[in-house]
Amino acid sequence: MAxxxxxxxxxxxxxxxxIAAALLACAILAAxxxxxxxxxxxxxxxxxxxxxxxxAQKELTAAEKANAGLxxxxxxxxxxxxxxxxxxxxxxxLAAKTEQDIVDGKSNKxxxxxxxxxxxxxxxxxxxxxxxxxxxxxxxxxxxxxxxLLPDQADISASSVYPDYLRYGHTIGNHTYSHDYGDGGxxxxxxxxxxxxxxxxxxxxxxxxxxxPRIVRFPGGSGMAGSRLDEIEDSLxxxxxxxxxxxxxxxxxxxxxxxxxxxxxxxxxDASKEQDIMVVxxxxxxxxxxxxMPDIIDSLRGSGYxxxxxxxxxxxxxx
Length: 319
Ligand SMILES: [Zn+2]
Hints:
Blueprint: H1 2-103, E1 110-119, H2 123-134, E2 139-142, E3 149-150, E4 153-157, H3 158-167, E5 171-174, H4 190-208, E6 215-216, H5 229-238, E7 242-243, E8 248-249, H6 261-272, E9 277-283, H7 287-302, E10 305-307
Parallel strand pairs: 1-2, 1-9, 1-10, 2-5, 6-7, 8-9
Antiparallel strand pairs: 3-4
Helix pairs in contact: 2-7, 3-4, 4-5, 6-7
Bound molecules: zinc ion.
């Protein structure tokens, strides 16, 4: 009897267990049906996030690298500026003394200030190389009228070559930002002229890491300013600028049918017979000038000329 009762109870328990198991199975099934897709969505989202994180990390590393490069560039530019200023100071003190000795008749030296207008051009690099070879210093009057890219090599940015002029010890002059001397241009309004000078200064400072081009050359020469000249000169003076025209026109801008290397050479060498200190006008875009330059340098050097970069204190510069 006891045996039978036990068996019955077991059967009873088994039935209840079956029902419970069925209910549990239903619950698991429901959970699986509703939860698994949601879980898969979350997992997918996680994978997406992880990918974004990886990309961001890569970008951060690249940015850190670029930043290090930029810092290095800024450091180099700052050092170049300091070195250039130190060297310029020494050169200019010596140049001022030499000028004074020449003016006083105490020196048989002569000075030629080579000036090249309208750059930067790609050809400017050829002039820099030539001047380096001949150990000549010059003055480059730069403008931004040609746009942000070099007109004779459009894949090079104009600002990127500015430091080159300083690297070789030349002077960068201010030939205004717009170089626009037509009707309604620079000379129609003193404010417009000064704005163009300041814009060019800002551009030069940014391109070189702080160099201020203090010597202005009027586009077309100061004669182009006409009756406004006095007012413009006052404004330049007030803002700490100096300005310079030229005592010799090489003739390289007289037109392509006229301006050849022979004419340019004879213009400069003829004028040199009467000038112990001269400021010669050339243009950075001129191929005949590049061709004539070695002979001009050799001949003038043979006559006792030294070649210096212009500086604001020079007797040739108006203040
Ligand atoms: Zn010009």
